[in-house]
Amino acid sequence: MASLDGINKKAVADRNSGFGTNSSSYGGRFINKTGKANVEKIGMHAFHRISWYHTMIDMPRWRFLGIILLFYITINFIFASIYYSIGMEHLDGIASSDSDIVQFGQAYFFSAQTFTTVGYGHISPTGFLTSALSAAEALMGLLSFAIATGLFFGRFSKPTAFLKFSHNGIIAPYGDGTAFMMRLSPFKNTNFTDAEAQMTLGMTVMENGVQANKFYQLDLELEKISTLTLSWTLVHPITENSPLYQFTESDFKEIHGEILVFIKTFDDMFSTTVAARSSYTFDEVVYGAKFVPMYTRSTDNSKTVLNLDKLNEFQKLSLT
Known about the structure:
Layout: E1 2-3, H1 46-49, H2 52-58, H3 61-86, E2 91-92, H4 100-115, E3 124-125, H5 128-157, E4 163-165, E5 169-174, E6 177-186, E7 192-207, E8 210-218, E9 224-228, E10 232-237, H6 249-254, E11 257-267, E12 272-281, E13 285-287, E14 289-291, E15 295-297, E16 304-306, E17 314-316
Parallel strand pairs: 1-7, 5-13
Antiparallel strand pairs: 2-3, 4-6, 5-6, 6-10, 7-8, 7-9, 7-11, 11-12, 14-17, 15-16
Helix pairs in contact: 2-5, 3-4, 3-5
């Protein structure tokens, strides 16, 4: 555990970090690599503490499509079961001589036709109960498709910062000393302008015999750029005013710390400001390395080629 004696006294702690100071109440990292806070909320029923809209918008594409398909299959199975329980004689077009499995299958596809309001007309309901059920199912189908359409639109139109962060941060040579570096890059055909970066260091230290979380704003060589079209390497020079001043490789292995990165930029396609976050725990920081260049000119010298697969590549080197 680090003590205050092992941290640069010139570094000024940030008292407005929003993460709290009681380290004994924290578990794991502050921010996950996905950019979301590493927090689990309990104490209320799931229906009250979970926004289903946000959940459906943020979940992976394969899971979203899987839930839509599962809902469609399940709801038609339920309605087919109700139709079957009422009696197949109330569905004109289904032969009574067919087996139970065939009759249930035809009831299922009648349900699908009613739910989607296609209505081929091969099978039709007779009697009050079956007619009322098919009317209710048609209404539910309209509402369900309206909700699904809204979710699809929300997922496609959601402003998203299509930025990827390097897996590791590095301690690299910089001028006459060293610097902490990480890099990021846009990975889709988007246009980012007016990009801003902020970097915060969080460490667990021993203060007056009590573990406490301390946060420090890390000065960057460049905090703003006019356009973000290639990779951007964020550089925090480790000077005498840096809380990382005189940190050795063993310090990064022994001290519990995390460097939080916040990016804000304007996306002209969404015509709004988007944000992205990530973090690097000290065990994700490579001491003594430099990033491999990501971009080069094309063979015909007509354009610049950005190699996204090199975002995480670095070379080890000695800092002594």
